[in-house]
């Protein structure tokens, strides 16, 4: 089934790219947890998550299945910080809960307890506690990495806009499931969602997703404009595991093992890529103050070591950090001996 989003010239001008929306990304994480796709990229994360989740997580997993529909109040693309949005779920109007659950029930059975959710305050509190717990296990330790991955992708997408315009960006979001057929963006929905949305000047908010590896998602009721979540492309031959251990704090007055291991210039290249995800080779050279051939040589070495990934946008090589590179930069540093 295909969902069609109709654009005007004004909509194209107002379409923009935003960071991941916390609840929308959390719903993608919950779905990814429950399926078996991408075992190399997600396998270690799944094993760690299942080990850490309490039985109370089952409420959220039942309402956000690996495929199909989920209630909008749990998966909204509203803008805000993760904890702010989690608190907003606790204050959701009962009428909205009834509306969202009734919509889901049109497509698939609800868990029996969900029929009482809009009328039972204790049950709603238990669901919100479950949502807080699932966020704490699945996403909170990795949120900085998620936003970093998304920033690298957004940098690449903005280059597409500069080179080929917004239409070039729309055509390349996810060719397997998103098709730009001017002036309509056609999205093949795994849920079977079918219909038409006329933006009528509001434009569209595009948000990259780390966990939405296969399927785009839509929130047509998001404010101030509808949202389409698209998957971050993994354009590497041998994808690394998505997450390593959470970053360690860097003590003051410490010696960097990265410099000792890589040398000053190559370590500077790695740090610069971390600070400027999606940088081109020429940009790296300018930021560090070295020649483009030297920046290219260092990037090649870092890529061969699995510390960065490089994607090509036409004739431009764009570099971003891998999970292994992030782990290396966050290795505990050794205090400098005092004289």
TrEMBL record:
Top-level division of the source organism's lineage: Bacteria
Coiled coil: none
Molecular-function GO terms, alphabetical: DNA-binding transcription factor activity
TM ranges: none
Pfam families named in the record: MarR_2
Signal peptide location: none
Protein's name according to its UniProt entry: Winged helix-turn-helix transcriptional regulator
Organism: Streptomyces halstedii
